[in-house]
Amino acid sequence: MIAPAAILGGAVVAASLLVAQASPPASQAPSTPPSPVPASATPASGAPASATPAAVATPVYTFVYRASPQPVPPPDVPVIAEIDLSATALTPPAPLHVRVLTSAAVVSVYAQTSLAFLTRGIPIPKAQSGLFLFDGYIPDVPSIVRNHTFNVTFIATAANGTSANVSIPLRLN
Q: Total domain count for the chain?
């Protein structure tokens, strides 16, 4: 879903950055890669199957934030260990890939940004314990919000309600 452009002038960037589409537009939609066939599988013809798995595109993360080493926290304390982004300078429309590595105590991760009194955000889906992934698409934005840097805060929350957060600047070119 793309945020409406009528959101309080320059505040449209908050919605554009964090109400990104969960997939690219149809003109740029990737094809679904075929499932790899186990090397032990034998086709109906009786010939052995290829041992080479199908190629799967992996996002390239050009920015990596790593927390400074800390003593091992108690098991119920949320920790953001690493945040990886495909870019910290975006020229919309553009894809955005985010990977957040956390402690096992974290049950949700939310990314948000604010402009004046307007705050917008999106949840980063949980892929498995300690791993949250977002692959989305930043829609085009009005020129008035381009060439600005915005802080995006990643908030990791544990089941007991405690949270940890990290802010990272993102630039819209």
A: 1
